[in-house]
Design a protein that fits this description.
single chain, 215 residues, alpha/beta, Rossmann fold, 3-stranded antiparallel β-sheet, globular, binds BIS(adenosine)-5'-pentaphosphate
């Protein structure tokens, strides 16, 4: 499957993407995970991105397009991909349209996961993430705790709260989403690719996607 997952921070894009990868081997491509990995590794990309991320601002479009142009041409994308957190602005969406045309790739759809703001705020304050940049498993101390407190079930590394999960940064990320990313729903609606799924259960979202795809 070749999908874009749209939705506010905390809507569950990463959680749903990880569930979908188990269906047909499509890969999850999360620009947030790529950037956090770069910050942890101390690369030039990470140094440039860190300030924006910690404040809850978007990283410049040019940096993101540089990453995605390479990533989408890697071999593992041939089976399919789930774009999680990308595109995030109209210029990114326009550049992605051009890139996919150039590569001869057709998207199945753009899925907009619609979750109420109060649920989102609560989820983000209680989310924990594996600190191992090769794992980045997602937990929630209320709804999806690890088996052993503070330890990743999958790789045994520590699970931590992300640097952009302060109340101030979360509020700013939600405002940035409303201003810069929410308009993408109209962009993909105009291309006949948008499906909005309202629901707080990731299983319901995954089932609705499977139904749309006929799988
Ligand atoms: P990014 O990592 O993409 O963060 P985000 O979009 O803010 O999305 P999140 O990862 O916060 O949420 P999610 O929807 O994936 O939810 P999740 O499944 O984790 O981006 C971080 C930063 O990087 C940005 O602020 C920006 O600076 C930069 N960046 C990234 N991409 C960029 C781009 N394209 N352009 C420019 N800058 C970019 O779930 C959230 C929590 O809820 C978890 O704890 C989970 O366990 C829980 N949960 C999920 N589903 C359920 C459920 N059904 N029931 C109960 N709990 C649930």
């Amino acid at each position: 499957m070749k999908l874009i997952l749209l939705g506010a921070p905390g809507a569950g894009k990463g959680t749903v993407a990880k569930m979908l990868t188990r269906i047909d081997g499509s890969v999850q491509i999360s620009t947030g995970d790529i950037l956090r990995g770069a910050v942890q590794a101390g690369t030039d990309l990470g140094t440039e991105a860190q300030g924006y991320m910690d404040r809850g601002d978007l990283v410049p479009d040019s940096l993101i397009m540089g990453i995605m142009e390479k990533r989408l041409q890697e071999d593992d994308c041939k089976t399919g991909f789930l774009l999680d957190g990308f595109p995030r602005t109209i210029p990114q969406a326009e550049a992605l349209t051009e890139l996919l045309e150039k590569l001869g790739i057709k998207l199945d759809m753009a899925v907009n996961i619609d979750v109420p703001r109060d649920v989102i705020f609560d989820r983000l304050c209680t989310r924990r993430t594996c600190e191992n940049s090769d794992c980045q498993a997602i937990y929630n101390i209320k709804s999806m705790p690890p088996k052993k407190e503070g330890v990743c079930d999958k790789c045994g590394s520590a699970i931590v709260q992300r640097a952009d999960e302060t109340e101030k940064a979360i509020g700013h990320r939600l405002d940035t989403y409303n201003e810069k990313t929410a308009p993408l729903a109209g962009f993909y609606q105009g291309k006949g690719l948008l499906r909005t799924i309202t629901g707080t259960s990731s299983e319901v979202v995954v089932d609705a996607i499977k139904k749309e795809l006929g799988i």
